[in-house]
Amino acid sequence: MKKIITLISILFLIVLSACGAPNPQKAGETASTNTSKDGEKSITIAGNGGVIEKTIRDVIAPKFKEETGITVNYVPGLSGEILSKVELQKNAPQIDIAIFVPTDVHRANDKGLTGKVDEANVPNMKNVDSKFVAVEGAGAPVFGLVIAPAYNTESFKEKGLKPIESWNDLPSGQYEGRTAFVDITNDWGFNTLYALAMTNGGGTDNVEPGIEKAKELAGYSTTFYKNSTQVMPAIQQGAADVTVMGSYVIGDLALSGVPIKMAVPKEGVPIQAFSGALVKNAPNEKEALEFINYLISKESQALISEQGFYPVVEGLELPEKFQESIGLKDTDKTFKPDPAVFAEIRAEWSDRWTKEVVPEIGKLLK
Amino acid sequence: MEPLRNYADQEVSEQVKVTGEPQRKTKVRKRRSWIAGLLLLIPILLFVFGFFIVPMLYILYLSFISTDNLNGADAVYSLQNYITLFTDSYYLSSMWLTVKISLYSVLVSLILGYPIALTMAKSSPKIRGYITLLIASPLLVSIVVRNFGWYLLLLPNGTINQFLMNIGLIKKPLNLLFSELGVVIGLSNAYLPFMVLAIATSLYNIDPSLEKAGAILGASPMRSFLTITLPLSLPGIVSGCVLVFSLSMSAYVTPSLMGGANVPMMPVVIYDQINTLLKWTFGSALSYVLLGITLLSVFFFTRAFEKSKFREVFR
């Protein structure tokens, strides 16, 4: 009996020790690279699914492996989810590079979850256009975009509606509820509220005018989508004619044959980029930095722009096939949101949105 | 002189020898089977401990930290998260909405599921097999895929609305999506198999001779159903209701995809708090209150039946 109990205890301890988190590496310590039996190196990237995943997995990673021999593993997820994961894994990171939206770059940096990325360790940073940089030294901008309204050109033509010229054109009974806006939990939704606030005399320090206008927007909407991936089918199926989304999605939809066009309101659209942030104490820091540098090389950026993203390095243009749907003219106004301020106000604005704006959904629809 | 032999004692000790040996063997056998049972349970105990109890304890610990910092030195321990939760009408109404929608889903699943289970119980094994396969087949498809299917069907210009408008039943599209109705449809569809299989299992165990006896004594089929079949299937109904209720209370994908922002059920609110706002501590408190309400509801529900006039069928 005693022998059996001893055996069980030993087994229990072995399993428990196996369940435990691996020892965290000390800051600055050279991390060991994930190396498989045949000596193949690999890094792990966590980023958005969809176009970003496709671009890295199918376009960039194979070329990178060809040139360096390093395999790229991709873990898809939303920016906020990835930040949660990185925070939980703080003592034993499993992810090398996290692809974040600007606010999350700031939040990650603020929580001490990112490693330094600058010209010293990523030489191609010198070519990057500063308007895409979220936080100096914390990550490299990779996938350029604007968050902007978009509309179904055919439907607008049929109904004799004039194209969207202002953020204030969004709350309108003319669209008969055929709109697809995402909730504030998504970056597109948060930027919409900010744009409405800004357009109506408010800003990051005064959300009041934005909330009032957003209530009107809610009144003319059937819902605010909790998941941005639902907006695409709504537009494709013809259930919605008006939306606010990332320019790369608009470009992708247009390319697939949907009659959609981005509108740049006279008040401007927020320009930004999904950034590749080096996770602090990443297990494969050297290789991760090499990949970040590769992502912002002119060659990679040319390939990335073929997927509908604005190139973040100077001297490159958006490909011709996207110019009609998401091309930015010199006269189009853009502005760079401050992720630090956005991160600070996010909780309060989200709270007000859920309690004051959401209950107004559908109230103005006939 | 030869001492007198105590034959009686000798007989007793013989008896002890004879009866004591099997008793010891039985004891050893019992102990061995107990150890074997324990050994068989070890993997699941480890699994539950490592992947359920430990994370749940960690979440409980987090719920008492009133700052957003998870493990920093400046963490402040208090009941603040719970106080906020119980004093903010938004979270209370979200909790009520979650309970309400879960109850509707149970009701719809029960109404749709009972006749199916009854048909299965009355059918031949072959037909029963086909129906089981049909009922369980949605479980083979990912819940996300199923929800996207429903989403396309229920859109204002989706198949259902188009059909109803084409046959002239409605003039303008019904608001099937992004409403409580849409979420109830989604949840009932997702969890109907659990209800059907729980009730069917209970119905299979009813002795058919009871209904025959009722018929011989003059009971109509309806009376026979109401006084024999229905009461005897109550354990299955209760199990099915508990399963569907618990699953609905913790459902995230369906309320998120079918309800949008209009139907803020508690799991969606918890997800937003943790993943969007990174408020792990408040989200943890919300999780525990949701868990508590689910457990309490299930406890009182089953208890009510076990104490009712039908308590005999639960023994």
TrEMBL record, chain A:
Q: Which domain of life is it from?
A: Bacteria
Q: Which SUPFAM superfamilies match?
A: Periplasmic binding protein-like II
Q: Which InterPro entries match?
A: SBP
Keyword list (alphabetical) reads: Signal
Where is the secretion signal located?
1-20
Q: Any keyword Signal?
A: yes
Protein's recorded name: Polyamine ABC transporter substrate-binding protein
Native source species = Cytobacillus citreus
TrEMBL record, chain B:
Transmembrane regions listed in the UniProt entry? 34-61, 101-118, 130-153, 181-204, 225-248, 285-305
Q: Name one Pfam family in it.
A: BPD_transp_1
- Which residues belong to any copy of the ABC transmembrane type-1 domain? 95-301
Q: Which UniProt keywords apply?
A: Cell membrane, Membrane, Transmembrane, Transmembrane helix, Transport
- Give the membrane topology, semicolon-separated if more than one: Multi-pass membrane protein
Main subcellular location of this protein, as a coarse class: membrane
Family annotation (PROSITE patterns): ABC_TM1
Subcellular location, record wording: Cell membrane
Q: Does the keyword Transport apply?
A: yes
* Gene3D superfamilies in UniProt: MetI-like
Do the record's keywords include Ubl conjugation? Answer: no
Q: What is stated as this protein's family in its record?
A: Belongs to the binding-protein-dependent transport system permease family. CysTW subfamily.
Q: What is this protein called?
A: ABC transporter permease
Tell me which species this is from. Cytobacillus citreus
